[in-house]
Amino acid sequence: MSPPSSSTALAAPVPAEALLAEARALKDAPAQEVLAWVEQRFGARAALASSFGVEDMVLIDLARHHAPSLRIFTLDTGRLPPETYELIEVVRNRYGATVETFFPERARVEALESSQGYFSFRKSLEARKECCAIRKVEPLRRALAGREAWLTGLRREQSVNRAAVEVAELDREHGGLIKLNPLAAWTRQDVWSYVKANAVPYNSLHDRGYPSIGCAPCTRAVKPYEDERAGRWWWESREHSECGLHPVR
């Protein structure tokens, strides 16, 4: 059999370094343009990691127009507030979206709760990180298996730990995937202006003073003078307000 002609041969895969260079060239581009690039380069091989906070809802709405092949997944820790589950159903019905759900490994959760109780994460920073590792970090690894790129709703303004977030990064923690944060430069006002202008649904907890929403026992409303992530693990020092999904550099 003769080899395929150049017009029918499969295109050679683009090295991650070249893809990263392309993505970083979009650092000042609108989020819509970043998503359009994701659609062109990755299609369904890219996925949005969604906790269904307001930033993720903006990305879901934008993707409907600019990256319709983008997959959506969530990490169901077993401790999410009911308002989050209600919003997931809204997303499924309004956008016709399939939300892939990844749970923690049953045996590890059972062992943790049997030996340490239901609130072990409040005993120490190490205990909290252990809980996050079981309920979030390990499921994320499974969620990203086979993907080539993933997107998040990280913004620089959210906290001091996120001040250096780039629009595009090489995620070495997960095998060199391209990690994209299309809203990195957006302000809180930018986010809510988009939500209002486009009638984007959002978690009702945002109206009750929760700018950042995670597991119910680890999230509270914030005071007007506090940063957006002050309600996450509020009993710890502010520099520790990450769960391990997005390592602090």
UniProtKB/TrEMBL annotation:
Primary localization class, coarse: cytoplasm
A Pfam family the protein falls into: PAPS_reduct
One GO cellular component, as annotated: cytoplasm
Domain Phosphoadenosine phosphosulphate reductase residues, every copy: 47-221
Enzyme class: oxidoreductase
Pathway: Sulfur metabolism; hydrogen sulfide biosynthesis; sulfite from sulfate
E.C. number(s) listed in UniProt: 1.8.4.10
Family: Belongs to the PAPS reductase family. CysH subfamily.
Protein name: Adenosine 5'-phosphosulfate reductase
Organism of origin: Pyxidicoccus fallax
